[in-house]
Write a structure and sequence with these properties.
- This protein has 289 residues and is an alpha+beta fold.
- It folds into 3 domains: 119 residues, Chitinase A, domain 3 (Roll); 80 residues, Up-down Bundle (Methane Monooxygenase Hydroxylase, Chain G, domain 1); 82 residues, Serine Threonine Protein Phosphatase 5, Tetratricopeptide repeat (Alpha Horseshoe), CATH 1.25.40.10.
- The chain is built from 8 helices and 7 strands.
- Strand 3 and strand 4 form a beta hairpin.
- Helix 2 packs parallel to helix 4, helix 4 runs antiparallel to helix 5 and helix 4 packs parallel to helix 6.
- The radius of gyration is 25 Å and the shape is elongated.
- Keywords: TPR repeat.
- It comes from Pararge aegeria aegeria.
């Protein structure tokens, strides 16, 4: 009997598989591979007994057509199934076990199932992808991320933006002396959009340090980017760095005096700046009375 092996481990979850029937070891899924799978003997439970899987999960909810593109899943359960598939061979059948716990070690969800990798369209490694394919993939992940953020799935959206950025990194470095100017401009604009989108996601969780970093990266590429100036101002405000926040929002208003969000933020910041100026003035009076 084959031994159960660990596929992936974190403190809050474990993914296991047991090979039931070996497959063709010369054919395995890579990023973007098209897989046809069959799943049966599905059993979902938590500490209270049988349960349903989250509705965002595609593979374990109806309707599922058996088609999976590696790297194109958003639900955490679906992504873990991808991890199992990437350790399977064409024709292989395995028993998979997914165990999820909370910070106290309580069982939140366990899924047991049998998976068969029925068919597989082999793909090149990302390192062998063409510029056009990498950029197309970046656009796909960025657009999917925007849709997820609109659905309030911020973490999943951020993951898509990060994936799109990974595709851009795979394209670079670009030789600006020989590169097509339009191509270089496309790369620059995409990177700016991704930094801005990722900063927006970080702000939703009050991750102000990460927001500052992302906005500062954008402003190095585009010093007059209003979205980055505004979001960096929000991050500075969250850290009570009101003078820095005021500086960014004033720069944003210089670029567009009619930007409503920047106008509102300036009104919010003004009392803080007036208090800081008054405190400074009082100190000077005491020093030189």
């Amino acid at each position: 009997m084959n031994k159960e092996t660990i596929v992936s481990h974190r403190l809050d979850r474990d993914v296991w598989k047991t090979v039931v029937k070996p497959g063709d070891y010369t054919m395995v899924p890579y990023e973007d591979s098209r897989c046809k799978i069959r799943i049966w003997h599905v059993k979902c439970e938590n500490k209270d007994g049988p349960c349903e899987v989250e509705p965002e999960c595609r593979i374990f909810n109806s309707p599922f057509d058996g088609n999976v593109i590696i790297g194109d899943m958003d639900s955490f359960v679906d992504r873990d199934v991808e991890l199992v598939l990437q350790q399977m061979c064409l024709g292989e059948i395995c028993d998979a076990r997914f165990v999820y716990k909370n910070v106290f070690g309580d069982l939140m969800l366990q899924i047991n199932c049998r998976i068969e990798l029925v068919d597989l369209t082999e793909e090149q490694l990302i390192s062998d992808w063409s510029w056009a394919r990498l950029f197309e993939s970046a656009v796909h992940h960025k657009e999917r991320g925007v849709k997820l953020v609109k659905e309030k799935r911020i973490v999943d959206g951020f993951r898509r933006f990060s994936k799109a950025l990974k595709m851009l990194v795979a394209i670079e470095p670009v030789d600006r002396l020989t590169a097509d100017p339009e191509r270089t401009k496309e790369l620059l604009n995409m990177r700016i959009k991704l930094y801005n989108n990722m900063a927006h996601c970080q702000l939703q969780f009050e991750e102000y340090g990460a927001t500052l970093d992302l906005c500062s990266r954008t402003l190095k590429l585009d010093p007059e980017n209003i979205k980055s100036l505004y979001r960096r101002s929000l991050a500075y405000s969250g850290l009570c760095m009101y003078e820095e926040a005021w500086g960014d929002i004033q720069r944003a208003l210089e670029v567009d005096p009619n930007d409503k969000a920047s106008i509102a933020k300036a009104k919010e910041l003004r009392p803080h700046i007036e208090r800081i100026n008054k405190d400074y003035s009082d100190v000077i009076k005491k020093m030189f009375g």
